[in-house]
Design a protein that fits this description.
alpha/beta, six-stranded mixed sheet, five-stranded antiparallel sheet, disordered C terminus, binds zinc ion
């Protein structure tokens, strides 16, 4: 897997185009990766939503990672996608302007029923697909759709590739830049472990680096 002309090339990579995009990044951006879950039934559902041109709810992301590890790219890496929404972290706001967004196919939070679990969309999940864990922004445990290992492996490979190619300095969850309204990628995703492995450190706050030119 490699990057050519701001598009991924490799096995299990598909290229589509989303009309929901905001033009080229400023010269110094992007320097941050934002990880999301799709909160939906499957990757096809998410890709449709991320390409929907209907005014009022237009969203997109650079990449969608399917549960088997396949990847669909919707926006080239030199172009702004609309995945972060109202967001703030470490002294900076409006993360669409400085970040690459990766959507990971996952149903999100699940509710227990008699002998299975159900997503907000009403889709049922077997207990083997469910993780019980406490969200970083909450106090009580709840139930979350499990991420398969091939999907986690591909997300980490993508993060390492993008950090290397674009000299990115931060990997953050949507739940960290919009904690009052977002829960993704959630506690079933090993976010702290991934950024420790890929970046080798906990993220520094932006204000420590605001006056420095990005590396
Ligand atoms: Zn999100």
């Amino acid at each position: 897997m490699r990057i050519k002309s701001h598009r991924l090339i490799g096995d299990d990579i598909s290229q589509l185009t989303s009309p929901n995009q905001g033009g080229p990044f400023a010269a110094a951006a992007p320097d941050t990766l934002i990880l999301h879950f799709t909160n939906g039934d499957d990757a096809a559902w998410a890709i449709d939503a991320l390409r929907d041109p209907t005014p009022g709810g237009r969203v997109s992301a650079h990449l969608v990672v399917h549960r088997d590890g396949a990847v669909t790219q919707l926006v080239p890496f030199d172009t702004i996608a609309w995945h972060a929404g109202h967001s703030a972290w470490g002294g900076r706001t409006d993360f669409n302007q400085c970040s690459i967004g990766i959507e990971i196919d996952n149903a999100g939070r699940l509710q227990p029923e008699a002998d299975h679990f159900v997503s907000w969309r009403g889709t049922g999940y077997d207990e083997s697909d469910v993780v019980q864990a406490t969200h970083r922004n909450e106090r009580a445990p709840s139930w979350w759709h499990r991420y398969p290992q091939p999907q986690l492996d591909r997300v980490e490979l993508l993060c390492a590739l993008l950090v290397d190619r674009y000299k990115m300095r931060w990997i953050l969850g949507h739940e960290e830049i919009a904690p009052d309204r977002k829960h993704d990628p959630g506690p079933a995703f090993p976010l702290d472990e991934l950024r420790q492995r890929v970046l080798g450190q906990e993220p520094m706050l932006f204000y420590e680096d605001m006056d420095k030119t990005p590396i």
